[in-house]
Amino acid sequence: MSTTRRKTRVVCISDTHNQTPKLPPGDVLIHAGDLTNQGSYTELKRKVEWLEKQDFEAKIVIAGMKK
């Protein structure tokens, strides 16, 4: 049995409100909410397109806004 360990780099962001920040490299991206300002279809579509372009093995996106 191999005992090789692999480190996993997790990048966690939130409250981007339609911004598309440059992200550091990582294996897992977590976006913890507040993707958009108003939650409109157009805003959400743009954010999903941006998320799809990010180079991560796994992406976890939590929808919604904290109020």
SSE order and pairing:
Elements: E1 10-13, E2 28-31, H1 41-53, E3 58-61
Parallel strand pairs: 1-2, 2-3
Describe the 3D structure.
The chain is an alpha/beta fold and 67 residues long. Helices cover 19% and strands 18% of the residues. It is built from one helix and three strands. β2, α1 (41-53) and β3 (58-61) form a beta-alpha-beta unit. The radius of gyration is 14 Å and the shape is elongated. The mean pLDDT is 92.
Give a brief rundown of this model.
InterPro entries: Metallo-depent_PP-like (IPR029052), UPF0046_metallophosphoest (IPR051693). The model has no long low-confidence stretch (mean pLDDT 92).
Quick tags:
Metallo-dependent phosphatase, 67 residues, 1 helix, single chain, 18% strand, Metallo-depent_PP-like, alpha/beta, three-stranded parallel sheet
Rg (C-alpha, Å): 14 Å
Oligomer: single chain
Write down the overall mean pLDDT.
92
Unreliable spans: none
Overall structural class, as computed from helix and strand content, comes to: alpha/beta
Task: Provide the β-strand percentage band.
Answer: 15-25%
What is the total domain count?
A: 1
| Biggest sheet descriptor | 3 strands, parallel
CA distance, first residue to last residue: 49 Å
Number of helices: 1
* Helical amount: 10-25%
SSE order, one letter for each helix or strand: EEHE
Basic shape: elongated
Q: Got a strand count?
A: 3
